[in-house]
Structure prediction request, 556 residues.
Amino acid sequence: MDSWLQILLIAACIAPAVVEGRVRSYTFNVVMKNTNRLCSSKPIVTVNGRFPGPTLYAREDDTVLVRVTNRVKYNVTIHWHGVRQLRTGWADGPAYITQCPIPTGQSYVYNFTITGQRGTLLWHAHILWLRATLHGAIVILPKRGVPYPFPKPDKEVVVVLGEWWKSDTEAVINEAIKSGLAPNVSDAHTINGHPGPNSNCPSQGGFTLPVESGKRYMLRIINAALNEELFFKIAGHQLTIVEVDATYVKPFKTDTILIAPGQTTNALVSADQSSGKYLVAASPFMDSPIAVDNVTATATLHYSGTLATTSTTLTKTPPQNATAVANNFINSLRSLNSKKHPAKVPLTVDHNLLFTVGLGINPCPSCKAGNGSRVVAGMNNVTFVMPTTALLQAHFFNISGVFTSDFPGNPPTKFNYTGAPPSNLRTTSGTKVYRLRYNSTVQLVLQDTGIIALENHPIHLHGFNFFAVGKGLGNYNPKTDQKNFNLVDPVERNTIGVPSGGWVAVRFRADNPGVWFMHCHLEIHTTWGLKMAFLVDNGKGPNQSLLPPPSDLPKC
Prediction:
């Protein structure tokens, strides 16, 4: 046993008052693995040679230790998407935001405690485009003896949705950066790593979900795709939604789920149909004139005793631009808001912020394919520039010159955000953060813009959950729209879709000191600069300050 693990286990035994949960230790070796999909093979970056990667299991209040060893040519970091990381920002994972990356041949131990959370989350690489294959599930069980607030399933199954490129994804994005244009879309979607049979490779198999008649199953569904929101459905079966982003919701039934990159959904499904085989489908949602991978991933729900030669009951996927289907799902989501699981929505607001999210066009003399221009993205017209020293280190050690704290709280230039674009499509550039006092409350309106194209943007905030108190089409109007906010039982999430041609309003309490990344979870938009960070100051109480960095924190 490693000495670091022995020391921590001894500490856990002699200090039970401090360590309420148990210590769960994992070893993640980042290695290349030759993998065959779509009737062709390529080497991919994996954890322990698996795609998707291993599921990390823990209970609420457990301490998790993950030793990540980098055995590939790329620098690596791992993000524990949705884990609050209370006071442990050093373990959050985004490269050059909370840590410098792990170099080839070196290791780093991510050490964090799961406080007040239970449900399904995900882990993924947070550097370059490595998360295309470097990802997996996080399953957080309730404290021992604490039941689910819904009927207990007979079995739980992790379902990871993703994308697959025949080409090396790093080559795909590097070519796009060089050209100044959008990258090639993926060649297939996947369900637990498999596209299922399709026209590109009719002989390949797909994921099979075995079920027994009369039993209830809970699917822990994760969208680990790089760039695409997905519909998910099972032929002939209703899905009862009980949780999103590791927060309980008021249960409701649907036949179609919408899930954006970075989001998770727990759904109960009863094996209550005639024995047979039923198609499981994941297909893209895009209600803007933007190219997507239109190949549907398929799997099979297979009742026990059904012959392999039995024909599969099919299902019709929603049209790619089925905004009504998407809204039907989104509008059905409400926090459970029970005595045991209350929705603690901030009712007063200290920071009233409006961030535009969208694209822009900047000069690029070397971008011949883009006629001397490059597509960029930003918030409040700021295209974020990645630093070479991690922001959290610069903050903790007072290193000057790494970032400025003048990120604008409102758009510097007002225009008809969802109407005709302004004449100047350029953005400004900078490494800017927005500073928040500890425990202050924030209302943030995220407003889509029509520069280049109106588009849905799934925005992820690290270090916090937030409540989605309102949304609408067109431009946000603070005088009229706020009157319709839901401050009683809004859904609580860590990743929220800004509707195409519209806005969404969220509220959260800044009760986690550190530097917290916020970005679009469409990876191409993050690459183009649609990102920023909140800096939350330390509080005055004994447990309100960022902990010191661990001794093995990678150096830049």
